[in-house]
Input
Amino acid sequence: MKIANFKNYSSFYLKLIYNRIMDLELLKNLCDTPGVPGVEDEIAKIVFKNISSLCFSHEVDPMGNHIFQVNNKIEGAPTILVDAHMDEVGFLVSNIEANGMLRVISLGGIDPKLFYGQRLTIWGKKNVESTVAAIPPHISGKNDSVTQVEDCLIDTGLSVKEVLKLIKIGDQVTFSTKCEIGFDRVISKALDDRVGLFVLIESVKALAKKKLNCNFFVSASVQEEMGLRGARIINSRVNPDFSIALEGTVSNDLVGVPQYKSLANLDNGPEIRISDKYLIADRKLNSFIEGLAKKKKIPYQLTAKNAGGTNSTAFQVTGNGSKATVLSVPVRYLHSPSSICKIKDIKNTIKLLTEIISKINTFQNAK
Ligand SMILES: [Zn+2]
Output
Protein backbone atom coordinates (compact mmCIF):
# COMPACT_ATOMS: atom_id res chain seq x y z
CA MET A 1 0.00 0.00 0.00
CA LYS A 2 1.31 3.42 -0.92
CA ILE A 3 1.25 6.19 1.69
CA ALA A 4 1.79 9.61 0.14
CA ASN A 5 3.77 12.15 2.07
CA PHE A 6 1.13 14.88 2.26
CA LYS A 7 1.00 17.49 4.97
CA ASN A 8 -2.27 19.08 5.94
CA TYR A 9 -4.37 15.94 6.16
CA SER A 10 -7.08 16.55 8.69
CA SER A 11 -6.33 13.16 10.21
CA PHE A 12 -3.90 10.33 9.83
CA TYR A 13 -6.80 7.95 9.30
CA LEU A 14 -8.25 9.97 6.42
CA LYS A 15 -4.89 9.68 4.68
CA LEU A 16 -4.84 5.96 5.33
CA ILE A 17 -8.33 5.44 3.94
CA TYR A 18 -7.81 7.49 0.77
CA ASN A 19 -4.44 6.00 -0.05
CA ARG A 20 -5.83 2.52 0.37
CA ILE A 21 -8.15 3.15 -2.59
CA MET A 22 -6.39 5.88 -4.57
CA ASP A 23 -2.78 6.87 -5.27
CA LEU A 24 -3.02 10.58 -4.43
CA GLU A 25 0.68 11.05 -5.03
CA LEU A 26 -0.07 10.17 -8.66
CA LEU A 27 -2.70 12.92 -8.82
CA LYS A 28 -0.17 15.44 -7.51
CA ASN A 29 2.39 14.26 -10.05
CA LEU A 30 -0.13 14.59 -12.90
CA CYS A 31 -1.06 18.13 -11.83
CA ASP A 32 2.51 19.36 -11.31
CA THR A 33 3.83 17.97 -14.60
CA PRO A 34 3.56 20.42 -17.52
CA GLY A 35 1.58 19.55 -20.65
CA VAL A 36 0.11 22.36 -22.71
CA PRO A 37 -1.58 21.44 -26.03
CA GLY A 38 0.93 19.79 -28.38
CA VAL A 39 3.46 19.15 -25.59
CA GLU A 40 1.75 16.30 -23.73
CA ASP A 41 4.71 13.87 -23.81
CA GLU A 42 5.57 13.99 -20.09
CA ILE A 43 1.94 13.38 -19.12
CA ALA A 44 1.76 10.50 -21.61
CA LYS A 45 4.81 8.92 -19.94
CA ILE A 46 3.01 8.96 -16.56
CA VAL A 47 -0.12 7.39 -18.04
CA PHE A 48 1.90 4.74 -19.85
CA LYS A 49 3.94 3.89 -16.75
CA ASN A 50 0.80 3.42 -14.67
CA ILE A 51 -1.43 1.35 -16.95
CA SER A 52 0.50 -0.17 -19.87
CA SER A 53 1.35 -3.37 -17.96
CA LEU A 54 -2.33 -3.79 -17.07
CA CYS A 55 -3.57 -3.47 -20.66
CA PHE A 56 -3.79 -5.94 -23.54
CA SER A 57 -2.45 -3.55 -26.17
CA HIS A 58 -1.36 0.06 -26.67
CA GLU A 59 -0.85 2.34 -29.64
CA VAL A 60 0.04 5.95 -30.26
CA ASP A 61 -1.60 7.62 -33.25
CA PRO A 62 0.07 10.30 -35.45
CA MET A 63 -1.21 13.17 -33.28
CA GLY A 64 0.07 11.61 -30.04
CA ASN A 65 -3.16 10.21 -28.60
CA HIS A 66 -2.40 7.13 -26.49
CA ILE A 67 -4.99 4.42 -26.97
CA PHE A 68 -5.07 1.35 -24.71
CA GLN A 69 -7.16 -1.78 -25.23
CA VAL A 70 -7.60 -2.85 -21.63
CA ASN A 71 -8.90 -6.41 -22.08
CA ASN A 72 -8.60 -9.00 -24.82
CA LYS A 73 -11.28 -8.69 -27.53
CA ILE A 74 -14.61 -10.37 -26.82
CA GLU A 75 -16.53 -11.11 -30.03
CA GLY A 76 -20.08 -9.75 -30.01
CA ALA A 77 -19.59 -7.72 -26.81
CA PRO A 78 -20.14 -3.94 -26.83
CA THR A 79 -17.14 -1.67 -27.11
CA ILE A 80 -16.77 1.26 -24.73
CA LEU A 81 -14.20 4.03 -24.97
CA VAL A 82 -13.31 6.16 -21.95
CA ASP A 83 -11.22 9.25 -22.58
CA ALA A 84 -9.46 11.96 -20.62
CA HIS A 85 -7.40 14.67 -22.25
CA MET A 86 -3.78 15.15 -21.26
CA ASP A 87 -3.36 18.83 -22.16
CA GLU A 88 -3.87 21.77 -19.81
CA VAL A 89 -4.46 25.42 -20.62
CA GLY A 90 -1.14 27.27 -20.72
CA PHE A 91 1.16 29.37 -22.87
CA LEU A 92 3.95 29.34 -25.45
CA VAL A 93 6.87 31.77 -25.59
CA SER A 94 6.16 33.93 -28.64
CA ASN A 95 8.84 36.61 -28.49
CA ILE A 96 12.09 37.51 -26.69
CA GLU A 97 12.53 41.28 -26.32
CA ALA A 98 15.91 43.03 -26.65
CA ASN A 99 16.21 43.29 -22.86
CA GLY A 100 15.40 39.59 -22.32
CA MET A 101 11.79 40.03 -21.27
CA LEU A 102 9.36 37.62 -22.93
CA ARG A 103 5.92 37.61 -24.50
CA VAL A 104 3.64 34.59 -24.56
CA ILE A 105 0.47 33.50 -26.32
CA SER A 106 -2.21 31.54 -24.50
CA LEU A 107 -3.36 28.05 -25.51
CA GLY A 108 -6.92 27.42 -24.38
CA GLY A 109 -9.35 29.74 -22.65
CA ILE A 110 -7.54 31.90 -20.08
CA ASP A 111 -9.13 35.02 -18.61
CA PRO A 112 -6.61 37.90 -19.00
CA LYS A 113 -7.97 39.38 -15.73
CA LEU A 114 -6.25 36.61 -13.75
CA PHE A 115 -2.93 36.76 -15.63
CA TYR A 116 -1.37 39.99 -14.33
CA GLY A 117 1.16 39.42 -11.53
CA GLN A 118 1.10 35.60 -11.78
CA ARG A 119 4.18 33.41 -11.35
CA LEU A 120 4.87 31.33 -14.46
CA THR A 121 7.32 28.48 -15.14
CA ILE A 122 9.07 28.51 -18.50
CA TRP A 123 10.01 24.95 -19.42
CA GLY A 124 13.16 25.76 -21.42
CA LYS A 125 16.53 23.99 -21.33
CA LYS A 126 16.16 24.43 -17.60
CA ASN A 127 12.95 25.40 -15.78
CA VAL A 128 12.95 29.16 -15.29
CA GLU A 129 10.60 30.89 -12.87
CA SER A 130 9.17 34.22 -14.00
CA THR A 131 6.49 36.75 -13.17
CA VAL A 132 3.97 38.57 -15.33
CA ALA A 133 5.28 42.12 -15.02
CA ALA A 134 2.93 44.07 -12.75
CA ILE A 135 3.41 47.83 -12.64
CA PRO A 136 2.91 49.22 -9.10
CA PRO A 137 -0.29 51.28 -8.82
CA HIS A 138 1.53 54.45 -7.71
CA ILE A 139 3.37 54.37 -11.06
CA SER A 140 0.61 53.12 -13.37
CA GLY A 141 -2.00 55.46 -11.87
CA LYS A 142 -5.68 54.57 -11.93
CA ASN A 143 -6.02 52.13 -14.80
CA ASP A 144 -8.96 49.73 -14.87
CA SER A 145 -8.33 48.34 -18.35
CA VAL A 146 -7.29 44.69 -18.66
CA THR A 147 -4.08 43.96 -20.57
CA GLN A 148 -4.40 41.03 -22.95
CA VAL A 149 -2.16 38.01 -22.31
CA GLU A 150 -0.08 38.52 -25.48
CA ASP A 151 0.59 42.17 -24.55
CA CYS A 152 1.92 41.43 -21.05
CA LEU A 153 5.65 41.29 -20.36
CA ILE A 154 7.04 38.14 -18.73
CA ASP A 155 10.05 38.90 -16.55
CA THR A 156 12.52 36.17 -15.54
CA GLY A 157 14.90 38.66 -13.92
CA LEU A 158 17.69 37.11 -16.01
CA SER A 159 20.01 38.94 -18.40
CA VAL A 160 19.22 38.69 -22.10
CA LYS A 161 22.34 36.53 -22.52
CA GLU A 162 21.09 34.03 -19.91
CA VAL A 163 17.59 34.08 -21.36
CA LEU A 164 18.84 33.27 -24.87
CA LYS A 165 20.90 30.38 -23.48
CA LEU A 166 17.91 28.78 -21.73
CA ILE A 167 14.74 29.83 -23.52
CA LYS A 168 13.56 29.75 -27.12
CA ILE A 169 10.40 30.67 -28.98
CA GLY A 170 7.82 27.88 -28.66
CA ASP A 171 8.87 26.72 -25.18
CA GLN A 172 5.85 25.80 -23.09
CA VAL A 173 4.88 27.95 -20.13
CA THR A 174 2.56 26.99 -17.26
CA PHE A 175 1.28 28.53 -14.05
CA SER A 176 3.85 27.86 -11.29
CA THR A 177 1.36 26.85 -8.62
CA LYS A 178 1.93 23.44 -7.04
CA CYS A 179 -0.75 20.88 -6.25
CA GLU A 180 -1.69 20.65 -2.56
CA ILE A 181 -3.82 17.80 -1.24
CA GLY A 182 -5.35 17.75 2.21
CA PHE A 183 -8.53 18.39 4.22
CA ASP A 184 -10.43 16.22 1.70
CA ARG A 185 -9.70 18.64 -1.12
CA VAL A 186 -7.24 19.26 -3.94
CA ILE A 187 -6.06 22.75 -4.89
CA SER A 188 -4.02 22.92 -8.08
CA LYS A 189 -3.53 24.16 -11.60
CA ALA A 190 -4.54 21.81 -14.43
CA LEU A 191 -7.28 19.89 -12.60
CA ASP A 192 -8.89 20.19 -16.03
CA ASP A 193 -8.20 17.52 -17.00
CA ARG A 194 -5.62 15.81 -14.82
CA VAL A 195 -8.40 14.88 -12.42
CA GLY A 196 -10.13 13.13 -15.35
CA LEU A 197 -6.90 11.39 -16.26
CA PHE A 198 -6.49 10.32 -12.63
CA VAL A 199 -10.02 8.84 -12.60
CA LEU A 200 -9.18 7.01 -15.84
CA ILE A 201 -5.93 5.53 -14.47
CA GLU A 202 -7.44 4.49 -11.12
CA SER A 203 -10.43 2.90 -12.89
CA VAL A 204 -8.18 0.86 -15.19
CA LYS A 205 -6.22 -0.29 -12.11
CA ALA A 206 -9.47 -1.31 -10.40
CA LEU A 207 -10.88 -3.12 -13.43
CA ALA A 208 -7.76 -4.72 -14.90
CA LYS A 209 -8.00 -7.84 -12.76
CA LYS A 210 -11.75 -8.29 -13.26
CA LYS A 211 -13.44 -10.32 -15.95
CA LEU A 212 -15.22 -7.82 -18.18
CA ASN A 213 -18.11 -8.47 -20.54
CA CYS A 214 -17.27 -5.59 -22.88
CA ASN A 215 -14.37 -4.43 -24.99
CA PHE A 216 -12.85 -1.71 -22.81
CA PHE A 217 -10.66 0.94 -24.44
CA VAL A 218 -9.19 4.06 -22.87
CA SER A 219 -7.58 7.04 -24.54
CA ALA A 220 -5.36 9.76 -23.15
CA SER A 221 -5.91 12.40 -25.79
CA VAL A 222 -4.07 15.51 -26.97
CA GLN A 223 -5.09 19.09 -27.80
CA GLU A 224 -8.61 19.10 -26.34
CA GLU A 225 -8.23 22.70 -25.22
CA MET A 226 -7.58 23.77 -28.83
CA GLY A 227 -10.90 22.51 -30.20
CA LEU A 228 -11.12 18.78 -29.41
CA ARG A 229 -8.45 18.10 -32.03
CA GLY A 230 -6.96 14.84 -30.78
CA ALA A 231 -10.31 13.21 -30.04
CA ARG A 232 -11.49 13.62 -33.63
CA ILE A 233 -9.22 10.86 -34.91
CA ILE A 234 -9.74 8.29 -32.12
CA ASN A 235 -13.14 6.82 -33.09
CA SER A 236 -11.84 5.57 -36.43
CA ARG A 237 -9.35 3.32 -34.59
CA VAL A 238 -11.57 2.14 -31.72
CA ASN A 239 -15.03 2.19 -33.35
CA PRO A 240 -16.84 2.35 -29.97
CA ASP A 241 -20.55 1.71 -29.36
CA PHE A 242 -20.35 3.87 -26.21
CA SER A 243 -18.02 6.70 -25.24
CA ILE A 244 -17.47 8.59 -22.02
CA ALA A 245 -15.34 11.71 -21.76
CA LEU A 246 -13.96 12.19 -18.24
CA GLU A 247 -13.62 15.81 -17.25
CA GLY A 248 -13.16 18.35 -14.54
CA THR A 249 -16.32 20.40 -14.95
CA VAL A 250 -17.25 23.95 -13.97
CA SER A 251 -18.59 24.31 -10.46
CA ASN A 252 -19.94 27.75 -9.73
CA ASP A 253 -21.28 27.07 -6.23
CA LEU A 254 -20.19 30.40 -4.79
CA VAL A 255 -21.72 32.86 -2.36
CA GLY A 256 -23.92 35.29 -4.27
CA VAL A 257 -24.42 33.03 -7.28
CA PRO A 258 -28.05 31.94 -7.57
CA GLN A 259 -28.51 28.18 -7.17
CA TYR A 260 -29.75 27.76 -10.76
CA LYS A 261 -26.46 29.16 -12.04
CA SER A 262 -24.22 27.16 -9.70
CA LEU A 263 -24.00 24.16 -12.10
CA ALA A 264 -22.28 21.10 -10.59
CA ASN A 265 -21.66 21.61 -6.87
CA LEU A 266 -18.66 20.35 -4.91
CA ASP A 267 -19.37 17.37 -2.64
CA ASN A 268 -22.49 16.32 -4.58
CA GLY A 269 -20.84 13.58 -6.64
CA PRO A 270 -19.95 13.27 -10.32
CA GLU A 271 -21.77 15.36 -12.90
CA ILE A 272 -23.64 13.45 -15.59
CA ARG A 273 -24.02 15.91 -18.45
CA ILE A 274 -27.24 16.21 -20.39
CA SER A 275 -26.11 19.00 -22.69
CA ASP A 276 -23.53 21.69 -23.32
CA LYS A 277 -22.85 24.11 -26.16
CA TYR A 278 -21.79 21.34 -28.55
CA LEU A 279 -23.39 18.19 -27.14
CA ILE A 280 -26.73 16.60 -26.53
CA ALA A 281 -25.62 13.53 -24.61
CA ASP A 282 -27.27 10.16 -25.26
CA ARG A 283 -30.32 10.12 -23.00
CA LYS A 284 -30.58 6.32 -22.80
CA LEU A 285 -26.93 6.02 -21.79
CA ASN A 286 -27.43 8.73 -19.16
CA SER A 287 -30.48 7.05 -17.66
CA PHE A 288 -28.60 3.73 -17.63
CA ILE A 289 -25.79 5.44 -15.67
CA GLU A 290 -28.31 7.06 -13.32
CA GLY A 291 -29.85 3.66 -12.64
CA LEU A 292 -26.45 2.21 -11.70
CA ALA A 293 -25.68 5.17 -9.43
CA LYS A 294 -29.02 4.82 -7.62
CA LYS A 295 -28.56 1.10 -7.15
CA LYS A 296 -25.06 1.53 -5.72
CA LYS A 297 -26.06 4.65 -3.71
CA ILE A 298 -23.42 6.75 -5.47
CA PRO A 299 -24.35 10.48 -5.38
CA TYR A 300 -24.52 12.20 -8.78
CA GLN A 301 -25.81 15.42 -10.31
CA LEU A 302 -27.33 16.16 -13.69
CA THR A 303 -26.58 19.35 -15.58
CA ALA A 304 -28.21 20.78 -18.68
CA LYS A 305 -26.31 23.84 -19.89
CA ASN A 306 -25.61 25.61 -23.15
CA ALA A 307 -21.97 26.52 -22.54
CA GLY A 308 -18.68 24.67 -22.70
CA GLY A 309 -17.73 21.56 -24.64
CA THR A 310 -15.74 18.36 -24.28
CA ASN A 311 -14.23 15.55 -26.34
CA SER A 312 -17.61 13.84 -26.05
CA THR A 313 -18.79 15.93 -29.00
CA ALA A 314 -16.04 14.44 -31.17
CA PHE A 315 -16.76 10.88 -30.01
CA GLN A 316 -20.46 11.33 -30.74
CA VAL A 317 -20.16 12.55 -34.31
CA THR A 318 -16.90 11.28 -35.85
CA GLY A 319 -16.31 7.91 -37.52
CA ASN A 320 -19.45 5.81 -37.16
CA GLY A 321 -20.50 7.87 -34.12
CA SER A 322 -21.21 6.50 -30.64
CA LYS A 323 -23.63 6.83 -27.75
CA ALA A 324 -21.78 9.56 -25.91
CA THR A 325 -21.83 11.30 -22.56
CA VAL A 326 -19.58 13.13 -20.12
CA LEU A 327 -18.79 12.16 -16.52
CA SER A 328 -17.07 14.89 -14.53
CA VAL A 329 -15.58 15.79 -11.20
CA PRO A 330 -16.89 19.25 -10.17
CA VAL A 331 -14.06 21.83 -10.06
CA ARG A 332 -14.17 25.45 -8.91
CA TYR A 333 -12.07 28.05 -10.78
CA LEU A 334 -11.39 25.95 -13.89
CA HIS A 335 -8.58 27.20 -16.19
CA SER A 336 -7.05 29.26 -13.38
CA PRO A 337 -3.73 28.85 -11.51
CA SER A 338 -5.61 27.35 -8.53
CA SER A 339 -8.67 25.18 -9.03
CA ILE A 340 -10.36 23.25 -6.22
CA CYS A 341 -12.05 19.85 -6.18
CA LYS A 342 -13.03 17.33 -3.51
CA ILE A 343 -11.42 13.92 -2.96
CA LYS A 344 -14.85 12.52 -2.10
CA ASP A 345 -16.12 13.51 -5.58
CA ILE A 346 -13.10 11.90 -7.24
CA LYS A 347 -13.70 8.70 -5.31
CA ASN A 348 -17.39 8.64 -6.30
CA THR A 349 -16.54 9.28 -9.97
CA ILE A 350 -14.17 6.28 -9.96
CA LYS A 351 -16.86 4.18 -8.27
CA LEU A 352 -19.49 5.14 -10.85
CA LEU A 353 -17.19 4.69 -13.84
CA THR A 354 -16.04 1.22 -12.75
CA GLU A 355 -19.69 0.28 -12.24
CA ILE A 356 -20.55 1.48 -15.78
CA ILE A 357 -17.73 -0.54 -17.36
CA SER A 358 -18.66 -3.64 -15.37
CA LYS A 359 -22.32 -3.45 -16.42
CA ILE A 360 -22.32 -1.83 -19.88
CA ASN A 361 -23.05 -5.23 -21.47
CA THR A 362 -26.49 -5.09 -19.80
CA PHE A 363 -27.41 -1.82 -21.53
CA GLN A 364 -30.66 -2.34 -23.34
CA ASN A 365 -30.06 -2.62 -27.08
CA ALA A 366 -26.34 -3.21 -26.51
CA LYS A 367 -25.00 -5.45 -29.22
ZN1 LIG B 1 -11.19 19.59 -20.01
Q: What stands out?
A: The longest helix spans residues 191-207. Residues 85, 192-193, 224, 247 surround zinc ion (CB under 6 Å). The chain has two domains: 12-88+178-362, 90-175. The two ends are 39 Å apart (CA to CA).
